[in-house]
Design a protein that fits this description.
- The chain is α/β, with parallel strands linked by helices and 312 residues long.
- The protein has two domains: 180 residues, NAD(P)-binding Rossmann-like Domain (Rossmann fold), CATH 3.40.50.720; 123 residues, N-(1-d-carboxylethyl)-l-norvaline Dehydrogenase, domain 2, CATH 1.10.1040.
- It has 13 helices and eleven strands.
- An eleven-stranded mixed sheet has the order 8-9-3-4-2-1-5-6-7-10-11, with helices on both faces.
- The radius of gyration is 19 Å and the shape is globular.
- The protein starts with a helix and ends with a helix.
Length: 312
């Protein structure tokens, strides 16, 4: 589709959580909309609006008012999906039949495994994945805090998705956030998974901010073995493996630089929501099983998080 035609079409966002509101808040007015989870494919003549304040890292405050409705109502040029990993397939099922088959779908989920499920479910569509280091949180329903600027890498998961990388980045660049094309998005997702697998579950089990795990006996007891498990599984599943000492150093570097932050998994647990543990440490467990690699610490962390958040 020509760029001039795309310029008149909005970016539709499926998932009005922190990351979805971040992109909606930075995109120009009327160039972003939310797809209603209640009636995602409904075609209506009027919209509801989601109102909130966006607090930038530089201290600026912007009032945001973003339309929310059915995907047919907006006829988007692009859809970005910021739902929780476990909700994504169910959220997309009613939306994609109502969406033109040429519209790129960009997945912004934490962890791994879900991306391949979506690509296999809709192999003919332009499906892409994004990995981002942008930090955002919602201390209040009406406030979105952009806690730290980062970068976002975008890469194709299907053949059509690989061909849509440039046009996708062009459409999202209107937000003014840092965007990069990533030829090997699987590797990029792994690089982020390493950090999430080493921080999120520990902060959830210990119920503490990121930095506090580093001195806790539970973390100190398990981090070396965890890093070794991640390294061995990663070597079987990624193009560029990472030594266990580098994995541990990267985990601790991020835990230090985000010392006062609450991980998304801990936040989900505090709010009584299902976490994404199955797509983080659980992904490592699953890939380990497929490769005949033992992952007892990852299995233990998955079990401990589920005991806290999914009581039987």
């Amino acid at each position: 589709m020509p760029a001039t035609a795309l310029a008149n079409k909005p970016v539709a966002i499926l998932g009005a959580g922190s990351l979805g509101r971040l992109w909606a808040g930075y995109l120009p007015p009327k160039q972003a909309c939310f797809i209603s989870r209640n009636n995602p494919a409904l075609e209506t003549t009027s919209s509801e609006y989601i109102h909130y304040q966006l607090h930038s890292p530089e201290g600026q405050i912007s009032d945001c008012s973003v339309a929310s409705g059915g995907v047919r109502q907006f006829d988007p040029a692009l859809i970005i999906v910021t739902t929780k990993a476990g909700d994504t397939l169910q959220a997309l099922e009613p939306v994609l039949p109502a969406l033109n088959a040429s519209v790129p779908v960009v997945l912004f989920q934490n962890g791994m495994g879900l991306q391949n499920l979506v690509a296999k479910r809709w192999p003919e569509r332009p499906v892409l994945a994004a990995s981002t280091t942008e930090g955002a949180n919602r201390p209040d329903e009406k406030i979105l805090v952009h806690a730290g600027r980062g970068q976002t890498w975008v890469g194709g998961l299907t053949p059509a998705g690989q061909q849509a990388v440039d046009v996708t980045i062009g459409q999202l660049s209107a937000a003014g956030l840092a965007l990069l094309a990533e030829p090997d998005i699987h590797q990029r997702l792994w690089n982020k998974l390493v950090v999430n697998a080493g921080i999120n579950a520990f902060t959830t089990v210990l119920d503490c901010p990121n930095g506090e795990i580093l001195s806790h006996p539970f973390y100190l007891e398990h981090i070396d073995t965890l890093s070794r498990e991640i390294a061995v599984v990663m070597a079987s599943d990624a193009a560029e493996p990472m030594p266990e000492n580098v994995i541990k150093a990267r985990i601790e570097e991020v835990a230090c630089s985000t010392a006062n932050n609450t991980s998304s998994m801990r936040s989900d647990a505090q709010r009584g929501r299902k976490t994404e543990i199955d797509f983080i440490n659980g992904y490592i467990v699953e890939r380990g099983k497929n490769a005949g690699i033992a992952t007892p610490v990852n299995q233990m962390l998955v079990r401990r998080v589920k005991e806290l958040t999914e009581p039987t």
